[in-house]
What does this fold into?
Amino acid sequence: MNPAIDISNVTLKTKRMILRPWCESDLDDFYEYASVDGVGQMAGWQPHENKQKSQDILTLFINGKKTFAMEYNGKAIGSIGVEEYKETEAEQFADQKCRELGFVLSKDYWGMGLMPEAVNEVLRYLFEDVKLDAVFCGYFVRNKQSARVQEKCGFKFLKCYLYQTQVNTLELTNYNVLKYSEWKRNHDE
It folds into this structure.
């Protein structure tokens, strides 16, 4: 089951970042990375063609109350959404509290280890504070960076399926899961 999530009053900190709700003043930072070719396509969306597109999505982030802005040195450089997981792709978890993570990072910050750092803190929040039983995360098979982030964070392969993107393409997708019990075991060692 997908329990309700509201991060509108949640701020998390890592060694190098603040994870917080999005705000209107993030528009320029958001557009700066969301308009770059090669960023959105890795998550199934096209680069933002204008600031109005970024404003529309920013409004969804703010009103949805489930997407963290990744702030690094005072700048929003990415996002982590706590989405509803695809119950039809993981029916064996129907009686458990689960959500799914989706994330994107500005190309300027790839390869710095920021995304695993942020994802690990969001996982801690979801398991310790929200009390989820499992968290899902998927990646297009061609997206090696996302695969590596999920591997570093302890996700395990669940299944492969075809995902229809927002731009109506089909992407072969690996769907992974991290159960609370496995996360806890890894963090107690």
User: Anything to note?
Assistant: The two ends are 29 Å apart (CA to CA). The mean pLDDT is 94.
